[in-house]
Design the sequence.
């Protein structure tokens, strides 16, 4: 089996034995990849100078899983970016973990998403940088939804296709895949009210906390379970961007 | 390697030994035969040490270090500075720091680190106990000695945010290039930290 070389972000690390870990990477060319990293935890060898850490990027060389094996083997890791700026603020840190949880939960192994790889790397870079953290999160949620083919319709009613009229009550249904107007809304059970002022904005420019909650509602519905980091991020976002009622 | 089944108790002993970290089938066999040949007292001393460890060791009621009484030997030592608390993730980290011989303060063992993706939350650690120690005692300084990993840093940041209102000095261990290593092989994060944490030469 020939080794593969790729760019990757570290999404998850689980201890496997005293000296080895299972590493979940999101790679640019092959999407999610799960590898065993032998001798990584206490290694002083140059190969894994200080072990791997969550939320860092690097260049990976690995052997893909052979036959029925579930795991490939990590042979080399060269750290590239560590996004150290994430570690100075809880919102940046938990926001980054949320982004990673979405990718690990909503993409499949061996399902390449190069555009999502770059969106995730950009999000980590932005969260680690000096710009406000809030808008990065709904922006990434929306990018991810688009990448996995679940971008919600946010301009017109998903059922009757009429444009949403400013000032009128609007609903959002995850199952229907977007907004529902006042006439179509009664036929749907799964739905939530959306402030009509919100949908005049975009996830990138609107109230970060309100957009986060709406898109997280959609993502939760798609995944069929709640994300572990969502509650904490929602609380930190409300603190950082108090709602205008 | 012998695959033949040995008689009951000896096989059981080997099976148990094999579960220990770093012990494979060959070592398990060697240890088992050693114990078989050894004096009764010598062999039973091992069994008793294991039993005493399981029965008598418990967390220190103040700092969660391993203790064989109400308080661990460090908390019970009147020469230790109770005004300085070094916060570590686990007892093994405490042992490593203690071995340096430079620490005069006392410790607080968190019993893990916050790992949001693994479902480990602040409430699963001993953070509440740390806060009440800081609030109730004459604590001047809290030194965060969590691992310099993402999860260790998450834990430290969380504790910093909780201590911010209390008015205690909070510091963190310095980090950077390890003595004995070479700059050429250090990764970016280590060099960045080392540069930021530079200090006067004396
Ligand atoms: Zn409609
Ligand atoms: Zn103690």
Sequence:
């Amino acid at each position: 089996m020939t080794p593969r070389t790729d760019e990757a972000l570290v999404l998850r690390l689980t201890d496997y034995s005293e000296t080895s870990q299972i590493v979940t990477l999101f790679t640019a060319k092959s999407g999610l990849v799960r590898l065993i990293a032998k001798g990584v935890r206490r290694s002083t060898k140059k190969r894994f100078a200080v072990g791997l850490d969550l939320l860092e990027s690097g260049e990976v060389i690995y052997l893909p899983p052979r036959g029925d094996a579930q795991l490939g083997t990590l042979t080399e890791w060269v750290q590239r970016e560590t996004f150290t700026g994430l570690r100075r603020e809880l919102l940046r840190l938990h926001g980054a973990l949320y982004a990673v949880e979405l990718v690990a939960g909503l993409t499949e192994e061996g399902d390449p998403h190069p555009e999502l790889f770059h969106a995730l790397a950009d999000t980590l870079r932005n969260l680690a940088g000096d710009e406000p953290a809030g808008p990065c999160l709904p922006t990434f949620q929306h990018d991810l939804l688009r990448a996995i083919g679940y971008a919600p319709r946010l301009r017109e009613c998903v059922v009757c296709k009429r444009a949403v009229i400013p000032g009128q009550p609007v609903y959002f249904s995850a199952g229907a895949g977007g907004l529902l107007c006042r006439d179509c809304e009664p036929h749907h059970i799964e739905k939530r009210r959306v402030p009509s002022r919100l949908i005049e904005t975009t996830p990138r420019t609107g109230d970060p906390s309100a957009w986060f909650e709406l898109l997280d509602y959609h993502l939760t519905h798609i995944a069929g379970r709640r994300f572990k980091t969502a509650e904490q991020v929602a609380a930190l976002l409300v603190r950082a961007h108090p709602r205008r009622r | 390697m012998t695959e033949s089944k040995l008689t009951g108790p000896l096989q059981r002993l080997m099976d148990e030994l094999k579960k220990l970290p770093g012990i494979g089938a060959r070592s398990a066999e060697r240890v088992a035969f050693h114990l078989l040949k050894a004096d009764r007292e010598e062999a039973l001393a091992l069994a008793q040490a294991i039993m005493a460890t399981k029965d008598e060791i418990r967390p220190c009621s103040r700092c969660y270090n391993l203790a064989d009484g109400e308080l661990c030997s460090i908390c019970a030592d009147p020469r230790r500075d109770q005004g300085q608390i070094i916060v570590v993730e686990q007892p093994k980290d405490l042992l490593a720091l203690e071995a340096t011989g430079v620490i005069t303060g006392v410790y607080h063992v968190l019993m893990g680190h916050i790992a949001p993706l693994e479902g480990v939350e602040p409430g699963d650690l001993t953070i509440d106990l740390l806060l009440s120690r800081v609030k109730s005692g004459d604590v001047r300084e809290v030194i965060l000695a969590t691992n310099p990993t993402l999860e260790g840093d998450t834990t430290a940041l969380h504790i910093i945010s909780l201590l911010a209102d209390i008015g205690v000095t909070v510091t963190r261990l310095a980090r950077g290039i390890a003595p004995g290593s070479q700059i050429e092989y250090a990764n970016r994060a280590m060099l960045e930290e080392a540069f930021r944490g530079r200090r006067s030469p004396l």
About this structure: The two ends of chain A are 59 Å apart (CA to CA). The longest strand of chain A covers residues 4-15. DSSP finds five helices and eight strands in chain A.
